[in-house]
Amino acid sequence: MFRRTVATALTAVAALTLAGCGDDTPAASSSPSASTANLSGTVTVFAAASLTGTFTQLGKDFEAAHPGVKVVFNFAGSSALATQINQGAPADVFASAAPKNMDDVTDKGTATTFVKNKLEIAVPKGNPGKITGLKDFTVKDKKIALCAVEVPCGAAAKKVFDAAQLTAEPDTLEKDVKAALTKVSLGEVDAALVYQTDVLAAKDKVEGIEFPEADKAVNTYPIATLTKAKNADGAKAFVDYVLSAPAKTVLTAAGFEAP
């Protein structure tokens, strides 16, 4: 049973995509087409918290390719984003860390799976809690952070504990993966389950420990334009860019894998 639940917050966030991966959506060319050369206005992207670093970079790259466009991001847990979109929050693109949250959105167009990601144990530099593996998450004397089960990283954590036939004893349940990672980087917990991309991004502050059960809960990330997008042309162009070869390079460098 979980001991203490700390974080509960719904915030609006942003979306993104990757290159040449996905259902039936073709990869876009890295050069703008005639139909997208004169794009303008704001593209509002709601994206999973684990996409923060890569999407921020891709947004800058997209703006450089289309000087008349401004990309605005909101990053949060995918479940919170889906709720906000269904409640009418203005968004043009949604990038989720799990298909379930994309399926929950009633305003989505055709979704394309663009990357996948899996969990890794994150510990503070030097591993002061002497964490060796997933079993340490069952020890009450260890300070442990997990994502809330409503968000993709929390749902994935439940799958790996079920696969390992272990009962976790977290001290805190966080609203998204970035919040869980922050607990580790500040030394407030001995360990957390986050994505491998988060460990890589924070490698100056945390260390990663791989575990075999992570293969039982690999998350696939879908992206879609929204049917009520105020900037439909800009939304389509952004999704196409995230599916392009340059974007794929950025995502792969961050640790994401092709689906």
Produce the secondary structure layout:
Elements: E1 41-48, H1 52-65, E2 69-76, H2 78-86, E3 93-95, H3 99-104, E4 112-117, E5 119-124, E6 144-147, H4 152-164, E7 172-174, H5 177-185, E8 191-195, H6 196-201, E9 206-209, E10 219-225, H7 232-242, H8 245-253
Parallel strand pairs: 1-2, 1-3, 6-7, 6-8
Antiparallel strand pairs: 3-10, 4-10, 5-8, 5-9
Could you characterize what this model shows?
The chain is α/β, with parallel strands linked by helices and 259 residues long. Helix content is 30%, strand content 21%. The protein contains eight helices and ten strands. Helix 4 links the parallel strand 6 and strand 7. The longest helix is centred in the first third of the chain and has 14 residues. It starts with 40 loop residues before the first strand and ends in a 6-residue tail after the last helix. The N terminus is likely disordered.
Helices and strands: which structural class? alpha/beta
**Structural Rg:** 18 Å
Secondary-structure element order, as H and E?
A: EHEHEHEEEHEHEHEEHH
Distance between the termini: 33 Å
Q: What is the mean predicted local confidence, pLDDT?
A: 88
Question: Level of helix content?
Answer: 25-40%
Q: Shape, please?
A: elongated
Low-confidence stretches: 1-35
Strands ordered across the widest β-sheet: 2-1-3-10-4
Number-wise, the strands total 10
Number of separate helices: 8
Sheet of most strands: 5 strands, mixed
Strand content: 15-25%
Concise description?
The chain is 30% helix and 21% strand.
